[in-house]
């Protein structure tokens, strides 16, 4: 269930987790798996809603739980809406003001890759600044 | 020359609803109906009424109203029936646009050019307004008489350069709302201006902590609960309930809609449980996620015993209408005395 994808940044990886929608069979166990994967994740997590044709209130509930699992830790969670209708629903719930939302996994990976790159570059800058000041 | 007027309401709307001047019939309380039918009010205004006012200025005493197909097609049989009744010239309006058109000017153009049929166009094409002489009424062939007649019209259409919007397209509808709110067109919001570019209809209940940012319109009997923000460029039509913490921005909420606490409606048109995003063109179903739904009739704010007045009269729609009987049992037409 948990897939690790290497990104452009050396040494960094993103966890890609499929989102179990309410209509899926075996949803309770998948739900548990998703939440525990989020709890133990130590790198950015992309939650992919592509398998959900439409979102209902239980799905929105689970998305909020996903956000709660990484709250207070330095782990970025990213949602992939998977369909334009899901994207609209996420906007209506205001989730994109808390968590980045993208239309496709590729966009999400590009974003997280850039974000990680930026982080690495920022650290590099700090080091060189420190060296310079020394 | 006897001039008749014929207005086609696209979308197969129930004529009973038209007769009772209720833009929403019983079926409208289900989400299945197509969004933004031409009878759904725009900042409290009925577009049919605006066309009727223009027709009245032509000196026409009555008009025929029918509920057409979704595209407003008029059949040959319908047109021929007018010719048989002795109508020598017929103004046909498909109710799919709002246009600030001087119909007298259209009539002059038609007479000067001597065409059997004239169609009004604007820069973006057809406006659904036709003038047909008896010859065109009789000779229109095929199933779709008016479309064939319109081919004649294309030779020399009446070019309208004034204000016009297609009201069945979500984006143009929202543009019309914005223009009505800012005074960029002749349509004005139907209500009382309580602040700068803020209009409310009668019986509106606003929580003291609700923020209303102009330009904005809130229709009659709508309830706006605590912490909600409406505007700018928002129109919440009549009989809606906007729950706590909702934000409505650059959007329209159509009548009888409930919005759940905290939702954000931005760049959209919400009709009951459905929202069309104006930028992405996507329609999403809000209902399964509990974000919005169409209020059942018994839950409408205006049905509450504490309210006074009726929907139709409060919207100024039914006043002055005098309905006659249908022209024939087989043709669902309605004669309206202007």
Give the helix/strand layout.
The complex is a heterodimer of chains A (134) and B (338).
Chain A: E1 3-6, E2 13-18, H1 27-40, E3 45-48, H2 57-70, E4 77-80, H3 84-93, E5 101-102, H4 105-133
Helix pairs in contact in A: 1-2
Chain B: E1 3-9, H1 15-19, H2 47-57, E2 62-67, H3 76-84, E3 89-94, E4 97-99, H4 103-113, E5 117-122, E6 125-133, H5 134-139, H6 145-153, E7 158-159, E8 164-166, H7 170-182, E9 192-195, E10 198-200, E11 205-206, E12 211-212, E13 216-218, E14 223-224, E15 229-230, E16 234-236, E17 241-242, E18 247-249, E19 252-253, E20 257-259, E21 264-266, E22 268-271, E23 274-277, E24 283-285, E25 292-294, H8 311-314, E26 322-323, E27 333-337
Parallel strand pairs in B: 1-2, 1-3, 5-7, 10-13, 11-14, 12-15, 13-16, 14-17, 15-18, 16-19, 17-20, 18-21, 19-22
Antiparallel strand pairs in B: 2-27, 3-6, 4-8, 5-6, 9-10, 20-25, 22-23, 23-24, 26-27
């Amino acid at each position: 269930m948990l897939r690790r994808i290497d990104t452009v940044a050396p040494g960094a990886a993103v966890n890609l987790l499929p989102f179990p929608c309410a209509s899926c069979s075996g949803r309770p166990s998948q739900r548990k798996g998703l939440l525990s994967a989020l709890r133990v994740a130590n790198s950015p997590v992309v939650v992919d809603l592509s398998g959900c044709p439409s979102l209902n209130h239980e799905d929105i509930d689970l998305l909020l739980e996903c956000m709660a699992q990484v709250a207070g830790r330095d782990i970025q969670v990213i949602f992939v809406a998977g369909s334009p209708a899901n994207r609209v629903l996420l906007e209506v719930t205001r989730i994109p003001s808390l968590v980045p939302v993208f239309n496709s996994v590729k966009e999400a990976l590009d974003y997280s890759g850039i974000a990680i790159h930026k982080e690495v570059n920022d650290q590099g800058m700090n080091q060189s600044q420190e060296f310079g000041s020394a | 020359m006897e001039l008749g007027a014929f207005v086609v309401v696209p979308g197969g709307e129930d004529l009973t609803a038209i007769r009772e001047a209720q833009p929403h019939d019983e079926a409208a309380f289900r989400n299945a109906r197509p969004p933004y039918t031409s009878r759904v009010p725009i900042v409290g205004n009925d577009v049919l009424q605006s066309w009727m006012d223009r027709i009245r200025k032509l000196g026409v005493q009555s008009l025929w109203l029918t509920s057409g197909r979704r595209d407003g097609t008029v059949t040959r049989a319908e047109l021929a029936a007018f010719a048989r009744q002795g109508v020598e010239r017929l103004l046909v309006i498909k109710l799919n646009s709002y246009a600030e058109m001087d119909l007298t000017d259209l009539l002059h153009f038609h007479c000067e050019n001597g065409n059997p049929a004239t169609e009004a166009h604007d820069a973006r094409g057809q406006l659904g307004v036709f003038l047909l002489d008896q010859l065109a009424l009789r000779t229109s062939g095929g199933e779709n008489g008016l479309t064939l007649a319109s081919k004649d019209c294309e030779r020399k259409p009446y070019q309208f350069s004034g204000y016009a919007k297609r009201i069945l397209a979500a984006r143009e509808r929202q543009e019309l709302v914005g223009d009505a709110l800012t005074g960029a067109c002749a349509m004005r919001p139907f209500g009382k201006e309580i602040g700068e570019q803020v209009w409310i209809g009668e019986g509106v209940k606003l929580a003291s902590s609700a923020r209303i940012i102009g330009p904005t319109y809130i229709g009659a009997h709508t309830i706006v609960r605590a912490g909600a923000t409406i505007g700018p460029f928002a129109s919440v039509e009549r009989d809606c309930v906007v729950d706590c913490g909702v934000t409505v921005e650059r959007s329209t909420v159509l009548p009888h809609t409930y919005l759940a606490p905290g939702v954000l409606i931005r760049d959209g048109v919400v009709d009951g449980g459905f929202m069309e995003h104006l930028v992405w063109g996507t329609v999403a179903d809000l209902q399964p996620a509990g974000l919005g739904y169409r209020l059942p009739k018994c839950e409408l704010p205006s049905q509450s015993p504490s309210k006074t007045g009726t929907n139709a009269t409060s919207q100024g729609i039914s006043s002055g209408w005098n309905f006659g009987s249908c022209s024939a049992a087989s043709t669902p037409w309605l004669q309206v005395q202007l």
